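Posting this for the archive.
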Amino acid sequence: MLILGIESSCDETAASVSRDGREILSNVVLSQVDMHAIYGGVVPEIASRSHVEGIHGVVSRALEDAGITVADLDAIAVTYAPGLIGALLVGVNFAKGLAFSAGKPLVPVHHIRGHISANYIAFPELQPPFTCLVVSGGHSLIADVRTYTEMTILGSTRDDAAGEAFDKAARVLGLPYPGGAQMDRLAADGDPRAYSLPRAKVEGAPWDFSFSGLKTAVLNTANRAAQKGETLDRAGLAASFCRAVAEELAPRAIEAACQSGHGILAAAGGVAANSLLRRALEEGCAKNGLQLFIPPVSLCGDNGAMIACQGYYEYLAGTRAGTDLNAYPTLGIDAPSRC
């Protein structure tokens, strides 16, 4: 079964063709990073206009790379939530028009479910049930993945997402957008114990996160050094920040995986590319006898392959949408599909 997946939830215009949800025949990503780097973050209106300009070419290239035409597709999957509403609408409307004109089924896909599906591409042997830590620019949560299409949230952030905190901490350190990869590189030259940074606990919710205090602590540390005329150890602060984030995320995810009884922990999303987090998850899972699955860095960020993959499983579950499909800026991973 051939599925075209279209992703446009933020600042990547992406499309991919998958076969049976596991084999990727093409994966095209048009990034807007250089454009938004000028402003230090994603500008929604610019992102939307760029999607409009690029989506036809990206989808055409994905079909060409796969060696097929629209007529060969069994269904068209598209991210419809959550994300920047203008950006989502570009992908949704393009997919609706393409599906209608070609007479193909339209399958709505939740963006976070797509991130989880990146693991199916990287690890064909992985099957639900398992626990998954999803950490990206806009989302941080722990999910109980019961089946390919049935999931519940075990814990989530109460304020900032981990990726957002990375970008803001990077800005404090004078690093360009996007901050996650830049912080990781700078941290490699620093001492992760150079600065004492806070770890938050949410009373009554042991698997929930909070990153606003950590983000503020980085800003205050930099400001104090400037006021006192001291030299800021930028690499040390970056390493200390990365360590703090890893120690917020990894123990909670590992504990949730242990208590779930599935014996498997997966990770997904852009922040899952962070080297300190990956190391913390590897060490924690080895200590607790858990199998760990983390996709390669190339599949951690937004891409069409993960949408095509999840679209396959949503299609098998009977999820369909018509030309009245809308986009939603916020929507829980455990919410029923809104068609």
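The chain has ten helices and ten strands. The radius of gyration is 20 Å.
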